[in-house]
Structure prediction request, 157 residues.
Amino acid sequence: MNRVFISMMDGLEEPSWMPNVEQYVNELLKKLSYDEEEISILFCNDEMIQTLNKQYRQIDSATDVLSFENGEEYEDEEGKWKSMGDIVISLETLPKNAAYFEIDENSELKRLLLHGLLHLNGMDHYEEHIEKGVAPVCEMLVLQEKILSEFSDYKLL
Prediction:
């Protein structure tokens, strides 16, 4: 069993698909063999993610997804938990990415959530990024694309 906490930046309207995210992330966690893990996901706008990107990565521009590893363990009345960390996704960049990759927003949202999870597990793609029409070569992005193909029929939106 895992815990997934999902929130919206203050002032943003919650999308109708928001309740579907927890189940999808839990399916990904199960696929990745995570158990007793806790993760939080925040949906925000480009301004907020740009601020975080500048503060934590010294890159003064908006991005699609940021991950902040935690790794702390704690125990409560429901058991022992490991806090994987936090994922932040810009809802303004999501449709821009979908247009660039010529895919629907459902597919892009699934990619961003999985991408964030893989980073929380310590994986990195360094300078390589997913590019339209180019097959990835690094372990993280190859795994990401493999898992996404297995979840191709999964509908969030």
